[in-house]
Design a protein that fits this description.
With about 325 residues, the chain is of the alpha/beta class. The chain has one domain: Alpha-Beta Barrel (TIM Barrel), CATH 3.20.20.30. Helix content is about 45%, strand content about 15%. The chain is built from 13 helices and 11 strands. Helix 7 links the parallel strand 8 and strand 9. Helix 6 packs parallel to helix 7 and helix 12 crosses helix 13. The radius of gyration is 19 Å and the shape is globular. The mean pLDDT is about 95.
């Protein structure tokens, strides 16, 4: 059965609001909640970018059963992998085993702020692979000295380790990346419903682990639920048209102003064609189908707009989850 999550969109909500929404997501019956980890919003209209790890720590104590995940953290520039290893271990303790560390190669929007420039895709992928290896090693609890191509660690040890190891998910695109990272991560994250990617990931995981199952494929789908469809479309266009650039563009633009300029010609009707907008829950259910058919085990929903969250939880979340689970009950 496909599992459904709620996205704590740090770009569109403040920290206290995000904690409250996570509590409401648990009460509504979502299986998990994921948090973006940004230094800047995609567009100025979104207006927020609190520190995701503080929010996640608060959510861990404010909830009891819902699973938590970063979607995703870049462990190579703004954060050193040794620091990410420590943060993830602490989160797993606070969450009593409910935490998954989602990692990715990052975007210039968030990583350029530390003044180290922005490497090429090839270099970013190399850095990500080395970072995952280093995090894994530190999570073994021994004293670590590391001199790699991109990172150095001197006499580092994680002193507070959880009883349950921290699962690692990695955000990728394409079958080549699936071959590369399936050997070092447990689960895969992708924002496009690419069945070939999922199949390649699972085959490589079987080759590495010798077992056919246990690896999740975690996708994400934006929605703009609202009783007024026109208002839903307007909000999606104002706050989420950045999505239309695609990840090759999204990874390299450095500022919200850049995203605004790059998407200035995306029309409201273009957004409505790609994002389920309005009160029709069946339309939202259908927007998930490509991910289900591609073999994704988990799909996190992004309800667009901070101002729409309370009404979404009050009026739509429960019935929507019922419809989703009825539609995608088969494995």
């Amino acid at each position: 059965m496909t599992r459904f999550g709620y996205t704590m969109m740090t770009e569109q909500s403040g920290p206290k609001e995000l904690v409250r929404y996570a509590v409401e997501a648990e009460a509504a019956g979502f299986d998990f909640t994921v948090s973006s980890d940004h230094y800047s919003p995609w567009l100025t209209a979104q207006g927020h970018a609190p520190y995701a790890w503080s929010v996640l720590g608060a959510v861990a104590h404010a909830t009891e059963s819902i699973e938590l995940m970063t979607y995703v953290t870049c462990p190579t520039m703004r954060y050193h992998p040794a620091v990410v290893a420590q943060k993830a271990a602490t989160m797993q303790i606070l969450a009593d085993g409910r935490f998954t560390l989602g990692l990715g190669s990052g975007e210039s929007l968030n990583e350029h702020v530390v003044g180290r420039g922005w490497p090429s895709v090839r270099v970013r992928q190399d850095m990500l692979e080395e970072a995952i290896q280093l995090i894994r090693l530190l999570h073994e609890g021994e004293l670590v000295d590391w001199q790699g191509k991109h990172f150095q660690v001197d006499s580092a040890r994680i002193w507070d380790l959880p009883e349950q190891p921290v699962p690692i998910a990695v955000a990728i695109s394409g079958t080549e990346a699936a071959q590369r990272f399936a050997g070092v991560a447990d689960h895969v994250v992708a924002v496009e419903p690419d069945g070939d990617l999922v199949a390649a990931w699972r085959k490589r995981r079987r080759d590495v682990t010798g077992t056919p199952g246990g690896s999740r494929a975690i996708g994400q789908v934006p929605i703009s639920w609202d009783p007024d469809r026109d208002q839903a479309i307007e909000r999606a266009h104002e706050q989420f048209r950045w999505f239309g650039g695609g990840w090759p563009v999204n990874a390299d633009l450095p500022t919200p102003a850049g995203f605004s300029a790059a998407t200035q010609y995306i029309r409201a009707e273009d957004v409505a064609e790609n994002i389920a907008c309005g009160p029709d829950l069946d339309a939202i259910v259908e927007s998930i189908r490509p991910f289900h058919e591609a073999g994704f085990t988990d799909v996190a929903l992004v309800q667009i707009g901070d101002e729409a969250q309370e009404a979404f939880f009050k009026e739509a979340a429960g019935p929507l989850l019922d419809k989703l689970r009825a539609a995608y009950a088969e494995d």
